């Protein structure tokens, strides 16, 4: 599945700027074709899709988008419709809004819209997600857990995601909500999976070749567990702090790039 | 990744017969080459790997296995060794024992042994797992949760698995521990993933072409969520019973076969 033709992924840590320079959203639009971009906003995660829509309609119009479609996807019937699938296949860029990532997967998972999203992405469509929309992008997603806590198994819960990239788990609002503990707890459970922590108003852009670029006002934190020498989530009681020795951590500043491990490529979607 | 050359997967619900006809273990050996089989037993999940080893050494010897290697893999150093990887690449059949699936993934995840297991399987090596070893086979695994309960989000916890098959979550000791509630709760979170419940002394054999065969003294239950019309795990409080409308359920009796959805193929491993 991993190939050079899948679209870039723009994984946004939530609270991206809508008022000023809009660096993060401009990056997404640049990748999706600038003035020629055909944007589909998917609000399946949103609790109030129509106010979410109004907000993105305004900011994308201000940024020069001429072709914009809005998919509320408030239930599985809507996500199973051919019309929804067609609009996703039409888009050059798909934007997954924030809200609740389990709401999104429980509505979209296994539907025509989900298949169309995977197919469009595999053929080159750029996919961006912010906050809950960012968490849902990989094969496995973090769905909840407490911030500002030491790593304990009990502070992170996971579920199958949309499967647009393999080998990755994403956490958002990363610095702002003190989520390093829960990201470490997730990676310790299976160090084959790399943790990506994205700050607010920031994005990790993943290119098909495996390059990651940080964009925005904050940073992207990479938790690579392959170097772990000892981690015992199974032996610790679920609520007890974990020992995790030898994690490799990278912080990527805005404008910097980083080469990801070979296992992590947009389009490596066989999962979910 | 999904191709016709990956090995079959033998997903065993735990407590397979070691004393009598050993129908389930014989099936694994038949697929791995009968008298020519080269078997590697991996005990990374086991709390007491050496008694686990003795048990499998005895039963496999009685069943005519002439070439048997044992990998205790008690820590990440062992799983990172070239010797472990070589024995996995040598095997025609790999057997993952029971124990604790998080112990296995936290030890093996992202190591040479994990890569060798994926590579061997992709090239045709048969992989069997029992109990915890069965749960760990897919890209996403169930790691815990209560049985004998109605579906509630709180009764199932998940984590990234070994990634030998995509689109599936496995639960074991299925009828014996009353686990339909937690399997439904898992599938409702993302109906793109099919739930597989395997009874004790029974196995679901997944062939590369997508056929599933039930073997042993119990049944295999398939929970296909793609037909779900309404499921709201995100809106329900985490401990409240869920509404899930329109699940498609299949029970496969021993000796029967069933064609799985196209998304589920051994070797569709891009995740983990």
How would you describe the overall organization of this protein?
Two copies of one chain form a homodimer. Chain A has 272 residues and is an alpha/beta fold. The first copy, chain A, has one domain: Class I glutamine amidotransferase (GATase) domain (Rossmann fold), CATH 3.40.50.880. The first copy, chain A, contains eight helices and 16 strands. Chain A has an eight-stranded mixed sheet, with helices on both faces. In chain A, strands 8-9-12-15 form a four-stranded mixed sheet, covered by helices on one side. In chain A, strands 6-7 form a two-stranded antiparallel ribbon. In chain A, helix 4 packs parallel to helix 6. The longest helix of chain A has 14 residues. Chain A is globular, with a radius of gyration of 17 Å. The two termini of chain A are 13 Å apart. The interface between A and B is large, with 54 and 54 residues.
């Amino acid at each position: 599945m991993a190939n050079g033709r899948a679209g870039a992924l723009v994984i946004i840590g939530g609270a991206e700027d809508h008022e000023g320079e809009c660096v993060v959203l401009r990056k997404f639009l640049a990748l999706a074709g600038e003035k020629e971009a055909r944007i589909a906003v998917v609000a399946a995660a949103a609790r109030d899709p129509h106010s979410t829509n109004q907000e993105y309609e305004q900011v994308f119009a201000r940024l020069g988008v001429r072709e914009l479609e809005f998919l509320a996807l408030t239930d599985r019937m809507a996500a199973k419709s051919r019309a929804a699938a067609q609009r996703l296949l039409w888009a050059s860029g798909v934007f997954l809004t924030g809200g609740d990532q389990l709401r999104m997967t429980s509505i979209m998972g296994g539907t025509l819209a989900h298949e169309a999203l995977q197919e469009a992405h595999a053929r080159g469509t750029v996919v961006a997600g912010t906050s809950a929309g960012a968490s849902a992008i990989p094969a496995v997603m973090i769905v909840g857990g407490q911030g500002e806590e030491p790593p304990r198994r009990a502070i992170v819960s996971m579920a199958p995601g949309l499967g647009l990239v393999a080998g990755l788990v994403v956490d958002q609002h990363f610095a702002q909500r003190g989520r390093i503990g829960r990201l470490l707890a997730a990676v310790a459970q299976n160090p084959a999976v790399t943790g990506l922590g994205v700050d607010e108003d920031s994005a990790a852009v993943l290119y098909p070749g495996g390059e990651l670029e940080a964009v925005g006002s904050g940073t992207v934190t990479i938790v690579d567990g392959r170097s772990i020498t000892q981690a015992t989530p199974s032996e610790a009681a679920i609520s007890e702090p974990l020992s995790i020795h030898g994690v490799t951590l990278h912080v990527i500043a805005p404008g910097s790039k980083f080469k990801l491990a070979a296992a992590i490529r947009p389009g490596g979607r066989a999962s979910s």
